[in-house]
C-alpha cells in the first residue's frame, strides 16, 4: 500500500476547523484526537465536533479516541461520520467485540498502543483490525518530540503483520516530521499522523505532499517491503 498522510487537527486553529480541514484536502485522512481528561490529561473535542467536521470536509476522518470506556463511546463516532475509529487497548474492556462493532457499523477498526504497551500479547487480535496505531509519544499533547525507542516496536509489529499475511495498516502518531518520517517508513509504518509538521508550516497542503514524497522514497528502499 502507498504511504498515507493523516494531518492532526490537534495542531490546527480550533476556531477555524472547517478552513483548517480544507487546507489539507490533498491528505488521505484527517486525524481527529478525542481526549477526555481522564485517559489522558487533556480535553479536546467530542461527537458534535466530529459530526460538524464530517459535513465540512470530503477528507475521511480518522478518529483517535484517547478516552476511557471506548467500548461505550466508539460506536457513536462511526455514527458521527468517522471513516476510521481507533480505540486504546489499555482502555478497552472487550477489544475484539469493539473492533467488530466498529466494522459492523461501517468504519475501519483500529487499535492503539501507548509507548510502554508491548505488541506481542495482542498478536492474536490483529486479524480483527484494519489498522494498528503505535504511539511514538505519550498520548495527551501535541508538539512532543518523537521517541526513537519506538522504532524496534514498529519493526516487530510489521514482522507480525507479515507473518500472518494481513492487510493491516500500521500507523504512527507523535513527533512525525520531515526529520523522522523516513525512519518510521523504514521500520514498517505506512500511515503517518503529522500535526505540527503540517499545521505549523506556511503551506499545510505542500507540507502534506512533501511528507508523502519522503515516506514513499523511504518505503521503496525499506527491507520489510522487499523481504516478503
TrEMBL record:
CDD domains: RPE (cd00429)
Binding site for a divalent metal cation: 31, 33, 64, 173
Pathway: Carbohydrate degradation
Keywords (A to Z) from UniProt: Carbohydrate metabolism, Isomerase, Metal-binding
Amino-acid positions noted as binding substrate in the UniProt annotation, renumbered to this chain: 8, 64, 140-143, 173-175, 195-196
Record's cofactor remark: Binds 1 divalent metal cation per subunit.
InterPro entries: Aldolase_TIM, Ribul_P_3_epim, Ribul_P_3_epim-like, RibuloseP-bd_barrel
Catalytic site positions: 33 (proton acceptor), 173 (proton donor)
The organism's place on the tree of life at top rank: Bacteria
Gene3D superfamilies xrefs: Aldolase class I
Function of the molecule: Catalyzes the reversible epimerization of D-ribulose 5-phosphate to D-xylulose 5-phosphate.
Protein name as it appears in the record: Ribulose-phosphate 3-epimerase
Amino acid at each position: 500500500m502507498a504511504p498515507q498522510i493523516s494531518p492532526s487537527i490537534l495542531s490546527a486553529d480550533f476556531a477555524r476547523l472547517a478552513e483548517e480541514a480544507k487546507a489539507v484536502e490533498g491528505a488521505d485522512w484527517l486525524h481527529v484526537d478525542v481526549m477526555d481528561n481522564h485517559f489522558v490529561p487533556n480535553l479536546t473535542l467530542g461527537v458534535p465536533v466530529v459530526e460538524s467536521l464530517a459535513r465540512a470536509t470530503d477528507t475521511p476522518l480518522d478518529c483517535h479516541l484517547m478516552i476511557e470506556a471506548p467500548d461505550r463511546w466508539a460506536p457513536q463516532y462511526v455514527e458521527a461520520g468517522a471513516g476510521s475509529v481507533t480505540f486504546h487497548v489499555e482502555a478497552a474492556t472487550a477489544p475484539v467485540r469493539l473492533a467488530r462493532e466498529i466494522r459492523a457499523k461501517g468504519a475501519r477498526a483500529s487499535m492503539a498502543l501507548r509507548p510502554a504497551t508491548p505488541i506481542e500479547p495482542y498478536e492474536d487480535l490483529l486479524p480483527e483490525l484494519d489498522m494498528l496505531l503505535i504511539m511514538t509519544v505519550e498520548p495527551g499533547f501535541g508538539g512532543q518530540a518523537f521517541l526513537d525507542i519506538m522504532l524496534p516496536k514498529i519493526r516487530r509489529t510489521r514482522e507480525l503483520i507479515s507473518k500472518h499475511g494481513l492487510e493491516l495498516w500500521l500507523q504512527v502518531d507523535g513527533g512525525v516530521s520531515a526529520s523522522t518520517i523516513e525512519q518510521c517508513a523504514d521500520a514498517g509504518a505506512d500511515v503517518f499522523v503529522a500535526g505540527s509538521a503540517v499545521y505549523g508550516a506556511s503551506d499545510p497542503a505542500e507540507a502534506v505532499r512533501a511528507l508523502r514524497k519522503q515516506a514513499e522514497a523511504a518505503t521503496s528502499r525499506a527491507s520489510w517491503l522487499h523481504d516478503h
